[in-house]
Amino acid sequence: MKIYIPIYICLLFLCSNIKLYAQVDTSSLEKQNDSTEIMYYIIEGDTIAREMINLEEVYLLKKVKFMSEKDRRRYLILRRKTRKVYPYAKLAAERLITMTDRLKTIEKKSDRKKYTRLVQNYIEGEFSDKLKKLTHSEGQILVKLIHRQTGRTAYDLVKELRTGWRAFWYNTTANLFEISLKEEYRPFEENEDFLIEDILERSFRDGILERQPPAFAIDYLDLVDYWNNKTVNK
Q1: Which Pfam families match (predicted)?
Q2: What are the domain boundaries of the chain?
């Protein structure tokens, strides 16, 4: 849903400086965009602002309500962990897109393997020290968010970038720490994932996290309605 704001007040100020004509030759109109993406019409050197301004879609979010103090603490802890690991998932998606686009321009199979290996080593070097410091729950949230941002599970990414055996080994090792690399992000099925999506949307709105579109469509308003109805019908 787009939000439009009339700018009649601005027009009142402009009218004192603009020459109005009963008929205007449309061929003399020149459309221009300024840095705010507001459309203007130039008429013989005068500027007339358009009546409506297109703004980006935003959600008006209600204040989070909790059934108990325990639920409130759970949400705050999840928020801290989500905000901590989301930048890693976002970065992983960016690196993957860059690598995929680059591979499309490389014809020789040997060169493709060499480039993939370089990217793998770079990503591992960039992430390894930071990821070692994550807790078990933070690691599992990161796995979910990687699926949200790339559309593929961490297991599938490892399998694609390395080998099936290494992916199996990575998943087995992760399971020792109660982390599954095959975990998917399912906000319509898992309540924790819904809370994560809510945390992300509020963090994007407040400028705490930088928005990156998910790999698959997530309608936040439909998601909220779904969980609200599910709570009422309990």
Answers
A1: DUF4294
A2: 8-49, 69-232
